[in-house]
Structure formats: structure tokens, C-alpha cells
Amino acid sequence: MQEDIDKFKEVYDLIVTFFVTYSFQLLGALIILIIGLLISNRLARLVLAVCERHQLDITLSKFLASCTRIIIIVMVGVICLGKIGVSVTPLVAAIGAASLGAGLAVQGLLSNYGAGLNIILTRPFVVGDTISVQGVTGIVEEVRLATTILTDEDEVTITIPNRHIVGEIIHNSKSCRVVEASVGVAYDSDPETVRATLVKVLEENGVANNRQPQIGIDNFADSSINYAVRFWVPTEHFHEHRLKINDRLLDALREAGIQIPFPQREVRVLETTKTTLLN
Questions:
Q1: What is the pTM of this model?
Q2: Domain 176-255 annotated CATH 3.30.70.100
Q3: Which CATH architecture describes the domain 125-172?
Q4: Within 10 Å of residue 37's Cβ, how many Cβ atoms?
Q5: Among 227, 242, 125, 249, which Cα is nearest to 177's?
């Protein structure tokens, strides 16, 4: 019983001595930490406001604001550690050694972060652009350090690791996406009438307003002249516009009396002589 009391007194005396000796240092470090956090938050908001005022990309603006906040917090942390008598040099060496081991263990994750930083700085695309990469197409919803988030017309969220984007071929069509259709008409159809009919359908449905559509003869097939029709629509309504325009094109061609032929093949039966049949 007496031994327990003596141990308790030793612990108590140690705690009292610690707070008497380092109370002002702890209080000063706490005050510095609170002030540093307030300053970091305010400067981060200031950097974000300046970037928005100069109309920088929102992803780059948030990244710069976050970096500013993290740098200030790290600096304040080093000052606080020195204030309470903790040597920073061994800590930095330990962090460096741990970072090396952690870097080897999470090499793939770090490559994603490096690729994300590359995307944010070089900006091959921004939020709202339509990109095609790695066989998928969608609207850029968010660019993070590790991943890029896309969404498509079906409201499917597509998450792509950034290391699968950097170094790949990226198709960026901004906010629109091209629709490529092919219409076959009879050989005796008037080309000007066909073209005027196709253009009228696109104009009536508003898809010829944002960018000039492309219409022309694509190839001469066996039973028809195939016209290529290329026009641009907002990506979030790609299939909706594509299907609607196809219906309107069919109706307009029929109303204009333009024939849409179906594939035909002639089969000739040659008469043979009786002598040939007997042989």
C-alpha cells in the first residue's frame, strides 16, 4: 500500500514539476497554434478570392488555397515544437525516413498524386469539359489530386486514377460532343434538295446554332448515295438529341419525297440447253 502511495506521489510531483517548468511554454505554443490556424484559414480564403477575381480555374484556385493553408500550418507546428523545447532536427530526419518507406509502399498512390498535380498545373482540361480517355467519355465533374471524376448522360459517376490520364491521348471537346449520322438516299434524288432538307431539320431542332454542322456525300454505295451528317450537341443530352434528330430526319425526307432505298441484289437465271443438262 505504501509503495503505491509513493509511486503516485512521484507521478504527481513529476506532473506538477512539468507544468510549473513548461506551463508558460505550453501556453505560448497553444496561443501561437491558435493564431496560426486563424491566419492560415484567412490567407487560404484570400488566395481563393484573388484566384477567382482573376478568373483562374476553380480546381487550380482550390489547390493553391489548400497549399497555402498547409504550408502555414506546418510552419506554425515547427515553431510550436521549438517553443516547448522539442528538437525539430531529429523529427525531420525521422519523418524523412518514414516518408521513404511509405513512398515505396504506396508508389501507385503517389504516382496518382503526382499525375493529379500535373493535371492541375498544366490544365489539359477543366471542370465542365467533355473528355474521352481510356475508352470512356464524360463531363469533368471534379479534378482531385488522386482521381478525376466524370459523369455521363446516364448520371453514372466515372472515377479515373490520374496516372491513367497523364501520358494518354485525351480528346477534349469542351462542353459539346459530335454526333455522326449517315443517311442513304436514292441515286435519282436531287442533291440540293437532300442537303436543304437535312439542314432545315438541324436548324429547326436548334443543333446548328452553337456550331456549323457538316453535311456532304460520304460515299457511293451499291443502292444509295450516303450523306454524312455531323453536328454538335451538349454532352449531357447527347443520346437524347441524337435519337430525336434521327426521327426528324426520317420524317423530313419522307415529306420531301426523297426515297430511302433498301439494299437490293439482282439474281439472273441463265437458261441452259438440254444438251448441257444431260451432260
A1: 0.56
A2: yes
A3: Roll (2.30)
A4: 14
A5: 242
